Structure formats: structure tokens, C-alpha cells
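(Deposited chain)
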Amino acid sequence: MNAVTIAALMGSLLLVDLGCGARPSRSVLFGTFDRVAAKEILQRWRPQVVGASLVSASDTLDAYVKGSIALSQPNSAAIVSDAVDLFIVRTDMRTCALKHALWSVDAERVNTLRELCTWAQERDIEMVCQLQGRDSALWVAVTGDSDDR
């Protein structure tokens, strides 16, 4: 994904969040994107091929594959932070199952998850954690909720 595309998406993100009225006192902005846009954003984590070699950290490759699989599911979409942290979700009316997180290089994970929870609460969205590993542990630390429905 090129810088122009990312800038256009992030401009949309800013408009989505500010469209609800005055900006809340949060330090992180979020926006929602459908599967098509989310797949474009996911390309940031796509492994690169140089010559005959795949150039990617194993955790980045794993995140990309899991993200691709999650976005192939029905009712999947994405919530994206202004730092381009990508949260793949599966929606069912007002419930949002947080399936997978792809983090930017300099991500402040705890703060971003805390802000994501606040963002969802402001919109009456019930956020259900279905993250795994480190991200699941961070979710529990932030919310105190270990219910992984």
C-alpha cells in the first residue's frame, strides 16, 4: 500500500471519528472500515520478497496470515487507530468480537486497547475479546475481563 492510499484512508479515519461531534479527550482516534478497505490496510504487514528470499519477521508473517484469514470470514471488518494499528473484528449487530490485532511498529498497546474500549463504550458497542496470546493478556490487564466468548 502506498503512502497516498494510507493518507487517504487516515483522512477518512479522522473524518469518521470527528463526525460524531467534538473530539473526545482521548489521545487515540479510531475509525471503522469494511472488509475491502481493511484488506488494503492489511497490506502494510504483507511479507516482502527480495530476490528469492522472503523478508519478514516471523511474528509479522504470522500476523499477516492470521489477519488475512480473519478478514475472509463473513461479517468481518476492521477498526483502525490513527497510528494504523489494525483490529480485525467480527460484528453481530451491536456486539463486536475482537479477533486479531496487527500493531504498528511503535504501538503503545496498553494505551491503545484502553482507548479502544472507551471508543466502543461511547458508541454502545459491546466489545468481546477473542484475541490470543500476549494481546489477550493485555486485554485482561486493561479491562479485567477474561471472558473470551
About this structure: Residues 3-17+27-143 form a domain with the Aminopeptidase fold (CATH 3.40.630).
